[in-house]
Amino acid sequence: MDTMIAVEHLTKRYKKAATPAVDDVSFEVAAGELFAFLGPNGAGKTTTISILTTTLAKTSGTITIAGHDLDRDPTAVRREIGIIFQKPSIDSHLSGEENIRLHVALYGVYGYRPLYRLMPAEYRRRIEHLAEVVGLGDDLFRPLKTFSGGMSRKLEIVRSLMHRPAVLFLDEPTSGLDPISRRGLWDYLREVRNEDGTTVFLTTHYLDEAEGADRVCVIDHGKVAVDATPDELKNRLLERTLVLDAADRGALRSELVALGLTPQDDPGGELRVDYRTPTAQDVISRIRTPLTVLRIREPSLEEAYIELLRDPEEAVA
Among 23, 118, 125, 261, which is disulfide-ready with 256 (CB 3.0 to 4.6 Å)? Predict the structure, then answer.
């Protein structure tokens, strides 16, 4: 698979800072990948994404996006990317649609026309479709100064998708969105990835949004703590668990011990065993005692993330 984003030895040191905000960070993002870039506040996430989107100068390192060197041709990089920042960067003196009309003209996607009805039919179809996806509808034509924070976020999402970017940077994209709009956005992003092969670079505090990522890169204190698939990260840090019970609990306990497992009493009264086999079926198929209870507990990415920040060395081991 082709590499869409290549970051090598990226460093950013602010004046008078004792340590770099980003310290020798390297990673790659494949074309079409959903790449989750995670970390606690102050870890270097926003600094990194600001450098990648050409809004902040780096101290050193090499960055290539969509085949363009960021130092040599930042304009070409900007043409290939769409950005949803944490804080809206829109003009409150214009309507929502006027903001987008100006944006696509600056990007050279559509020529500017003084009135919405004079814009090409393709522009009108796309903006109306995206407005429906995020739940803006006709509010798109209201003055921006009447928008709530959530509506302004929705407008930024529409604007970032208008020119069908090769790489979409999402910096806390669903912050301020209601659950229905949040789900609608992710449904649409899945559609965009499937149809256009868009590469998505995501930062989020909603760890459930990163569960579907192809890879997760966690940055902590300016350094990459781990770069792995969600399953690899969970398997490194957490045990998967089976909760079992039987009419003859004593026989079940003895059988589990004979299989090399360590049954423990679960708060619900059943037996609990941790396992590291590829699937739960590998354990269940070896149990002969008739079961009355069987539940599989898979760790979440959020649990693995919290465990990683508690003990970063464990994930590397």
Answer: 261
Number of separate domains in the chain: 2
In a domain, 317, yes or no: no
Q: What is the pLDDT of residue 314?
A: 55
Do 169 and 247 lie in one domain? The reply is: no
- Range of the structural domain that residue 133 is part of: 3-232
Residue 104 CA to residue 130 CA, distance in Å, equals: 14
pTM of the entire predicted model: 0.77
How many CA atoms are closer than 13 Å to the CA of 117, on its beta-carbon side? 0
Mark whether 182 and 200 lie in a shared domain: yes
**Minimal CA–CA distance to 172: which of 134, 135, 137, 210?**
210
316 pLDDT more than 90: no
Residue 151 contacts by C-beta under 8 Å, 6 or more apart in sequence?
96, 136, 139
At residue 64, the pLDDT reads 97
Q: Count the alpha carbons within 13 Å of 255 in the hemisphere toward its beta carbon.
A: 18
157: pLDDT strictly greater than 90: no
Has residue 314 been placed in a domain?
no
Q: What is the mean pLDDT of residues 116-143?
A: 90
pLDDT: which is higher, 203 or 315: 203
